[in-house]
Design brief:
The protein is of the alpha/beta class and 271 residues long. It has eight helices and eight strands, in the order H-E-H-E-H-E-H-E-E-E-H-E-H-H-H-E. The strands form three sheets. A four-stranded parallel β-sheet has the order 3-6-7-8, sandwiched between helices. A hairpin with a 4-residue loop joins strand 4 and strand 5. Helix 4 packs parallel to helix 5. The longest helix has 27 residues. It starts with a helix and ends in a 6-residue tail after the last strand.
């Protein structure tokens, strides 16, 4: 999915990559692939619903690599449903009320997990020296020397589901909207530390997550790919690698004047 594509893209850009996941098998597959291609990578088993797990993960990564420059928050729990009368909606797998356990799962994964990752990464980023990005600008009235360096970059993977209403998507969309506001507030709070915080909001992407949604609403994968793609101006789903390109941009010094921003990558679906 998007996480794997991001790990590969950051590796291609020269980053040392720590893959943090609850799924050991899939996580190690990504790490093995990066190592086979000459990358320095490690896997750390992480449960983003437990703050202690995140604390231990960040400490292990910081100790192993000596520093942390980029955090990509990408964990997601796909929980759907509504607050009306169960069975009086679409009649599909999303036409249901949300249990306490489901609310707990989606909030701890999609919101609290993101916040804990940021909280424990920031002390490591604060120790970093500013990246060496200085622009020398001469507009005819003397040269301005603009120091555009930062100590770290945080990229929160949100979703267009945080921007629009979708039928029977109450828990998922609520958490994605929360991520967008968390991004803005954290960008404000960390600006003085020279840590940039931005978000990226994908639309429909060709991933297992979208296949699960297709299954819940009773369409097969090929039909679903066509149906979801037709909702966009480009008439297709995104490849995970396209979203990873956006993440790399926000993580890099190419985005040195961006913080508190949200890049929408949705094939024109929400214009």
């Amino acid at each position: 999915g998007i996480g794997r594509a991001v790990a590969v893209r950051l590796h291609q850009a020269g980053a040392k990559v720590a893959v943090c996941d609850f799924n050991r098998v899939d996580g190690m597959k990504v790490v093995d692939m990066l190592r086979e291609n000459g990358g320095r990578a490690c896997f750390v088993h992480t449960d983003v619903r437990r703050q202690e797990s995140i604390k231990d993960t960040v400490a292990e990564i910081g100790t192993r690599f000596g520093r942390i420059d980029v955090l990509v928050n990408n964990a997601a729990a796909f929980v759907f449903g509504h607050l009306g009368t169960e069975g009086c909606g679409s009649g599909t797998g999303t036409d249901k009320n949300i249990t306490y356990d489901e609310w707990n799962k989606v909030l701890t994964t999609n919101v609290m997990g993101y916040s804990w990752c940021i909280e424990h990464v920031v002390p490591w980023m604060r120790k970093n020296k500013l990246t060496d990005v200085v622009y020398h600008n001469d507009q005819g009235s003397g040269v301005s020397h603009i120091d555009a360096g930062s100590r770290g970059a945080i990229v929160n993977v949100a979703s267009i589901s945080g921007l629009i209403a979708q039928p029977e998507f109450v828990p998922y969309n609520s958490t994605k909207a929360a991520i967008l506001m968390m991004t803005k507030c954290t960008a404000l709070d960390l600006a003085g530390c020279k840590i940039r915080v931005n978000a990226i909001s994908p639309g429909t992407v060709d991933t297992k997550g979208s296949y699960n949604h297709m299954n819940l609403i009773g369409v097969d994968i090929e039909e679903g790919k066509h149906m979801f793609g037709e909702a966009t101006l480009l008439r297709r789903q995104a490849a995970p690698e396209e979203i990873a390109n956006g993440v790399l941009f926000l993580a890099s010094d190419e985005a040195s004047y961006m913080t508190g921003a949200n890049i929408v990558m949705d094939g024109g679906q929400t214009i």
